Amino acid sequence: MGEFRLRIDKDYLGFCSAHFITYDSDLCEALHGHNFRVTLGLEGRLDENYYVLDFIRTKEMLKGVCDELDHRVLLPTESQLVEVEADEAEVRARFGTRRFLFPREDVVLLPIPNVTSEMLARHICGRMKEELAKLGVENLSAIEVEVIESPTQGATYREEL
To answer: 125 near 111, Cβ under 8 Å?
Structure first.
């Protein structure tokens, strides 16, 4: 028997967040937000229940990962252009002469170099791999995450397992 592909794309699987992107070494977008939508694809062998993975459990995991990012400011911790400092009360970010100050509880610090849809897709993929590992899922051969930031644009990250 070959492999199967599971795809999950629900209206409630997403997050509303603020971010900015740096580019061309010296440019920085204005702080703005998106209603990001997330789609998940999993490939692999069927398990003993004839599932790649149970839809209900998979949607719950993905919803939990999306909720971690929901209604927050997303900042990169691995950027060479944005300096980020945090303590228990606040997060300070700096790009050149621009300064940002946020309450700590309103920020998610992401281990990525830039808060692009591409890097968000990779981050969510990594978080889903962590959640799947907690369940001991071993029948998967690939995972794919698409992050859509508007109806006409998004990015996909795929990883062979």
So the answer is: no
> What global pTM score does this model have?
0.95
What sign for the dihedral angle of Cα 87, 92, 93, 97?
negative
Q: Report the top-level CATH class of 4-79+106-160.
A: alpha beta
Structure tokens at 148: 């859509």
Residue 68 a catalytic site member:
no
Cα–chain-centroid distance for residue 75? Answer: 12
Q: Where are the alpha helices (DSSP H) in the chain?
A: 55-69, 117-135
Euclidean distance between CA atoms 161 and 142, whole angstroms: 5
Contact 26, 96 (CB under 8 A): yes
Residue 124: the pLDDT is 98
Q: What is the pLDDT of residues 4-45, one digit of tens each?
A: 999 999 999 999 999 999 999 889 999 999 999 999 999 999
**Measured distance CA(86)–CA(90) in Å, rounded:** 6
Of 16, 29, 71, 105, which residue is the catalytic one?
Answer: 71
Is 28 annotated in the active site? yes
